[in-house]
Design a protein that fits this description.
CATH architecture: Roll
Strand order of the largest sheet: 2-1-6-5-4-3
CATH class: Alpha Beta
Structural class: alpha+beta
Largest sheet: 6 strands, mixed
Order of helices and strands: HHHEEHEEEE
Shape: globular
Length: 132
């Protein structure tokens, strides 16, 4: 009886928050940044993406954005990441800040995502030196 009640509560709570059991996309992106995996990150890019990397800013296609990110990882191989902040309460918007540590520098990565159809896509990716 108690087990049945417990299962009912779990079922109802997942109906109330359908995204509660889904992995958070910011968590996934953090692991891709730690691995320096530009290909996996680019899978989440919108068709055009605003990239701000250090002092360079422009709007690029998905393929161009992946290449620029790959070049960044070649120059700055990642050592570790940590999620500094994330907003995941809006059903159509996600935002996250990841601290990316490399061998020589630490960067602050800001990710802005919007929902298109049924999935989130990165519309802006900002990588800047972390302020002490």
């Amino acid at each position: 009886m108690i087990r049945s009640l417990f299962l009912l509560i779990i079922s109802l709570s997942s109906l109330y928050h359908p995204t509660a059991l889904q992995a958070d996309i910011i968590d996934d992106l953090s692991s891709y940044f730690k691995a320096g995996n530009s290909k996996e990150i680019a899978k989440s890019f919108a068709s055009t993406i605003e990239l701000i990397i250090v002092d360079e800013e422009d709007v690029y296609s998905k393929a161009q954005g992946e290449q620029i990110l790959r070049d960044f990882f070649i120059k700055h191989p990642p050592v570790k990441t940590s999620i500094f902040h994330k907003i995941n309460t809006n059903p159509n918007y996600r935002f996250g800040v990841i601290i990316l540590s490399t061998a020589k520098e630490t960067f602050r990565v800001s990710i802005t995502m919007k929902k298109f159809n049924t999935s989130f896509s990165i519309t802006e990716l900002r990588i800047e030196p972390a302020k002490d």
